[in-house]
């Protein structure tokens, strides 16, 4: 079932009324037509914000939203910091934020997926992999055998983690970034789009590539 550990959910609210919220709406809407939970609306910390062209209400901010019975929230935010803050805020208020896995995703029975993660269409999470709490795996990404992704990290569309690669907590990997087999990336790192990472990195690094892979600068802690 797309909403993991939320079998009693009758309706779902999307946290985030921006572009990624539109994409998550599309996934949930198609699934609602096949018997999945109805979409009740959006919450967003920009008061009153609603995605263009979608006739659903804004139900408040993540600070003041009050769920109905059997109502859960899927967090549709692509920012590492925003994902962590909103997921933790809702959880502290006792609001259920289940993991969402699109029906087209292949997830190995040996994979371990944390709470409040989101895995988008046509991604693969292979054998003996680990995804931490709040992780976002965007469309057409591949987490190969033995690879791991730390809490609240974001994999943009088309990211590839090769076998036994590891990404620390709160990292952001740009579109089509590739982590080579066995390479370890520390916490709080940013990997630039289309960058192939062939050497391990410490925490708080911005990693990009030109003729050679370079660590361009340290990210302030």
TrEMBL record:
Enzyme Commission number(s) from the entry: 2.3.1.203
Keyword Acyltransferase set for record: yes
Domain PglD N-terminal: 12-90
Pfam families from the UniProt entry: Hexapep, PglD_N
Keywords: Acyltransferase, Transferase
Coiled-coil regions listed: none
Binding site for substrate: 78
Top-level taxon: Bacteria
RNA-binding listed as a keyword: no
GO MF term set: acyltransferase activity
Family statement drawn from the similarity comment of this UniProt entry: Belongs to the transferase hexapeptide repeat family.
Protein name, UniProt field: UDP-N-acetylbacillosamine N-acetyltransferase
